[in-house]
Amino acid sequence: MTTTTPRPTPADTEQGDPRLDADVRLDVDHLARVLLGHYPELRLGARRLMTDERLHRIEGQTLAEHRDRVLGQLRILAAEGDVHRSFPARFGGADDHGGFLARFEELTHADPSLQIKSGVQWGLFASAIYHLGTERSHDQFLRDALTVAVPGAFAMTETGHGSDVASIGTTATYEPETEEFVIHTPFRAAWKDYLGNAGLHGTAAVVFARLLTAPAGAPRVDHGVHAFYVPIRNPQTMEFLPGVGGEDDGLKGGLNGIDNGRLWFDHVRVPRTHLLNRYGDVAADGTYSSPIASPGRRFFTTLGTLVQGRVSLDGAAVTASRLGLTIAITYGNQRRQFQGGTGDEVVLMDYAEHQRRLLPLLAETYAAGFAHEDLLAAFDDVFSGRNDTPDTREDLETLAAALKPTSTWHALRTLQTCREACGGAGFLAENRITGLRADLDVYATFEGDNTVLLQLVGKRLLTDYAKGFKHLDAVKVARLVAERASDAARFRTPLHRALQTVSDVGDPRRSAGQLRETDTQRALLVDRVETMVAEVGQALRPAQKADPATAAALFNSQQHALVEAARAHAELVQWESFTAALARVTDPGTKQVLTWVRDLFGLTLVERHLAWYLVNGRLSAGRARTVTSYIDRLVSRLRPHAQDLVDAFGFEQAHLRAPIASGAEQARQDEARAYYRAQRASGDAPIPEKHTR
Amino acid sequence: MTTTTPRPTPADTEQGDPRLDADVRLDVDHLARVLLGHYPELRLGARRLMTDERLHRIEGQTLAEHRDRVLGQLRILAAEGDVHRSFPARFGGADDHGGFLARFEELTHADPSLQIKSGVQWGLFASAIYHLGTERSHDQFLRDALTVAVPGAFAMTETGHGSDVASIGTTATYEPETEEFVIHTPFRAAWKDYLGNAGLHGTAAVVFARLLTAPAGAPRVDHGVHAFYVPIRNPQTMEFLPGVGGEDDGLKGGLNGIDNGRLWFDHVRVPRTHLLNRYGDVAADGTYSSPIASPGRRFFTTLGTLVQGRVSLDGAAVTASRLGLTIAITYGNQRRQFQGGTGDEVVLMDYAEHQRRLLPLLAETYAAGFAHEDLLAAFDDVFSGRNDTPDTREDLETLAAALKPTSTWHALRTLQTCREACGGAGFLAENRITGLRADLDVYATFEGDNTVLLQLVGKRLLTDYAKGFKHLDAVKVARLVAERASDAARFRTPLHRALQTVSDVGDPRRSAGQLRETDTQRALLVDRVETMVAEVGQALRPAQKADPATAAALFNSQQHALVEAARAHAELVQWESFTAALARVTDPGTKQVLTWVRDLFGLTLVERHLAWYLVNGRLSAGRARTVTSYIDRLVSRLRPHAQDLVDAFGFEQAHLRAPIASGAEQARQDEARAYYRAQRASGDAPIPEKHTR
């Protein structure tokens, strides 16, 4: 957790003199290299591959055509796409988990459906076989999954249970007589749902079910959620196998290159060896064993593999935000609308409101990108085994649960603002923003609902605050927090005092200068997280002696505050990653501009939560006023660098593929201006009626 | 302007005792009647018509199929839909402008594409002939437009000029020799663009062009933007007529039932009588005449007819928000997820965060609905001629320019939150929310870009503040405001003093009580608008003596603040409409619940802008804390009434057509719970592994 661990502070830049700003130059190539992060060659290679037209989305395809195309693209990637990097060498991989995801994120340029369909096949289906299975499972199932000889579904979610996997209804009952598991759907709400590859293309699925054993003469025992490899369709006829049924989920709000669907099982039998048996196994006689004694910890370990998907969505959200901003800012630098004071029409990016709408989103996109690189590094540390402990796993899961909601919601907000900033042109499918937004929409709720994930983060923050409890239900969290609530005053004091010195300064110019300082921004952001967590902890105190229903009600009353605290934590994490990244920038001009971008991000966070800082006495009213005026100043300072800042994302036209960002608008504006210039020069311009009076 | 005119205050309800809340009953039928507003029978009739399956959107149709279907639906409406109400009796209408729009809004249930295609045909194309033409124009063109014998485009927007109609490049040059206008597109940026009916179906267009005359021997005179009736396609072959060209805009982010397209004109000739000549005419010899001497006022009068579209979009945004909330809240009352303190799974709507996300949006939707009814009444007052003066027209235009951005942005936010609140089910096209959101997206930028409209409102607020200037460019507004800036102190004092008494009260319980009071809410909202406008006025003061470029730069520096002031004004207008509507509620229980909804709306606004109230000393930190806790209390008070509040919108299943809001989820949950209940009763339930130790 980064909340309480200050990182090295890069030297603060000098208080800039606006008259000197003109001399500041951003080195686009240098910044582009910084942004390529830990896997520059892999990313550049993936981007080169993504210029292949065969991989590009064709807007306006029917559901059937789009699904068919994406399946074909999957086979192209299987052959040419280095998509097995995370798997062992004997399966054609390189045991490179971080590089695997870095390449995956770059699929977003081509078509988010391709990213997600690939995620279903390799990131979920094949990875479940790999991570939840043993060598036995790998030998049986992995090769066909990796080559897409078997397109597979990841059958975890049920119609009746979305993010609450622990409550799924599907059962897998072991029969010692036949040495088979009987997979069964007991009621409609237990149908598997929203599964990619289940609607049409999948011939097998990794099915999550409650493993039931019936020791001789004893009642059945529920060993909790386990994963099973289950063939579902005849690969020749593509008909469902006996006992398997399903439905196509049909058209969705986006991602229509993926054939989501539903599955149900009517006493479907699979051999004992189809249990993916890394974290739990059943002997031929029905004896259950597991390397993890606690069913709860076993469940969370099983689900831990899901973190890969969340890391990948975080990266895709950053990519999509960058695409949208590159299109909108490029267009905004060419498009003119309404006359300004000089009689000439004004370039959109010169309007203060246009800058105010786009540039803070650009700053946040930079922050999300740097945070994502840190997440990717943490992911690789754990999954490579270099630093794989229960603690680092949990830190990774918490980090992913904090960043995925933040970046996916940010992407939706950013793409929508970009769409509107491009007006009617932004609404045309050819300019791609609406399609990206439609596709990214579901990123906010799949692979863990954003609000549910933020609650997990909030509980972890409470855990850190109250020390000593993890993965607990509402009642237990409330109780344990309550035990520590009396520490709250001590917990808050030092930071609070530190900030008093900030808020006591009267001179507004000096105030703005202080807000620019790294330590001030950090102190403001850290203090907010810690105070909010402590307040929730305090509020949960009476739960200690309450009955379960009362304790749950009390926890519910704090749900909103807890989610807000988790959001604040995620924002702080992004800010810390951005700040740490500044140290990697060596070119002085680039570092100056990027420090302004970081300041804009930090101050935007403070402005967003300004009421909190005022209510809690962390900023005086006078200081609060300087936040907004300093943001205004940063925005106009950054305006000349806006194009460079999006160019550094490194997209070519083959990635953007948006006519309005191709230079066509500039050509149209130039032609119109030349026309009127020539008309004036020839003396042939019509006289406005009002000049004839 | 409602800013400074307090309306009658309905009696404040008593401070409720939560223990008595259980007795409060909402009369759904009574509330539904109140919500039907000024045109209950017309709305109910339109809703009955909208149960006709032929008018329903079929999700997943191709572009071609969807366009074809909507054109067919247009012809059904022409025959059966009472869509000519706003036109004179001799054209089958009833001169009923408000009723015309009220019915139009109800088309949104069936398919927003149908609403907008109808809007293009009757609200823009036929209405332009009617409002901008004279009897001569009506006789020539109106009947075929109304019957859809001639599907028509409204060719105003150009590729190079969106909301800035004054700068369009298309010309219409009068030739006395032939008594013809020559319509011409001088460069690519002057192509007409985004025009409904231009892509495929239109055989004529009302084309906006700069009217040029060339008096004998004198230079050409530009009389500004006028509208011309121009045939564009051969109705038999559907080929473009000679000199006319165009392109299909192709697939869009939504509204794909409409064939948007581009048009250009290469010296296309139309007879002199094709000028829609109400506000400007050209005699056979080329002499120009107009009943409006000022070209500026003539331009804004010509554009004034556009207000109808904005009123209609405001209504559609309300309808779409109501649809989304009805679906999400109905589902949220049936769906269960995660176990609560009692071991039973919790209904989504019982989660505090779920309530916090949906109920303030519900309150804002109520406010937007009441404000829309007031807008509709103002529109009917003006367009019926009952109260048609330059002042009432301008008030109407300002009101529409304030409400359309507010309600369309609200609809997008609401639909997105509803989508997420329904999880994966919300992403399925069959549940309609994603489709509605995609369609409504462009409502934020067409018929006047939201940000541009809010700027117009802001300028009007400055006008009222500075008195005596209207429709001025940035430079003039800055100068004129500056002249009045010295009044600012006087302007602000009384309200500021009134509010001091509010903020000086220390007892938090009494504070919450005061925030509940209508007058307190009004004072807080009014004060904010007035102060923000005055501050912008003050800031623009130096523009008085500045050169045009400096004055424009100064105005630009205040653009964000001006847009924010306009937003605050629009929110106040909505709040006033809601408050006025409470007086129309006669049933005491309904009035009580609706007053809580109004309070929730008012307090949500105060919370949204809490930093402003704190920075400006309008609320103390202690008082500010009570805002949030009072919102929490209101939200839990309203939770038991949430279903009634959406049921009162009056939609039937034939309007909702969303499987998740059909009761299917309740049936699934009931089946699952019955299954587990039976299992427990039979003693056959598996024993959790952890209980076997």
Automatic annotation (TrEMBL), chains A, B:
<keyword id="KW-0276">Fatty acid metabolism</keyword>
<keyword id="KW-0560">Oxidoreductase</keyword>
<dbReference type="InterPro" id="IPR012258">
    <property type="entry name" value="Acyl-CoA_oxidase"/>
</dbReference>
<protein>
    <recommendedName>
        <fullName>acyl-CoA oxidase</fullName>
        <ecNumber>1.3.3.6</ecNumber>
    </recommendedName>
</protein>
<dbReference type="Pfam" id="PF22924">
    <property type="entry name" value="ACOX_C_alpha1"/>
</dbReference>
<feature type="domain" description="Acyl-CoA oxidase C-terminal">
    <location>
        <begin position="532"/>
        <end position="661"/>
    </location>
</feature>
<keyword id="KW-0443">Lipid metabolism</keyword>
<dbReference type="GO" id="GO:0005504">
    <property type="term" value="F:fatty acid binding"/>
</dbReference>
<dbReference type="InterPro" id="IPR046373">
    <property type="entry name" value="Acyl-CoA_Oxase/DH_mid-dom_sf"/>
</dbReference>
<dbReference type="GO" id="GO:0055088">
    <property type="term" value="P:lipid homeostasis"/>
</dbReference>
<dbReference type="GO" id="GO:0003997">
    <property type="term" value="F:acyl-CoA oxidase activity"/>
</dbReference>
<comment type="similarity">
    <text>Belongs to the acyl-CoA oxidase family.</text>
</comment>
<keyword id="KW-0274">FAD</keyword>
<dbReference type="GO" id="GO:0033540">
    <property type="term" value="P:fatty acid beta-oxidation using acyl-CoA oxidase"/>
</dbReference>
<dbReference type="InterPro" id="IPR036250">
    <property type="entry name" value="AcylCo_DH-like_C"/>
</dbReference>
<feature type="domain" description="Acyl-CoA oxidase C-alpha1">
    <location>
        <begin position="304"/>
        <end position="462"/>
    </location>
</feature>
<keyword id="KW-0576">Peroxisome</keyword>
<keyword id="KW-0285">Flavoprotein</keyword>
<dbReference type="GO" id="GO:0071949">
    <property type="term" value="F:FAD binding"/>
</dbReference>
<dbReference type="InterPro" id="IPR009100">
    <property type="entry name" value="AcylCoA_DH/oxidase_NM_dom_sf"/>
</dbReference>
<dbReference type="InterPro" id="IPR002655">
    <property type="entry name" value="Acyl-CoA_oxidase_C"/>
</dbReference>
<feature type="region of interest" description="Disordered">
    <location>
        <begin position="672"/>
        <end position="693"/>
    </location>
</feature>
<dbReference type="InterPro" id="IPR055060">
    <property type="entry name" value="ACOX_C_alpha1"/>
</dbReference>
<dbReference type="Pfam" id="PF01756">
    <property type="entry name" value="ACOX"/>
</dbReference>
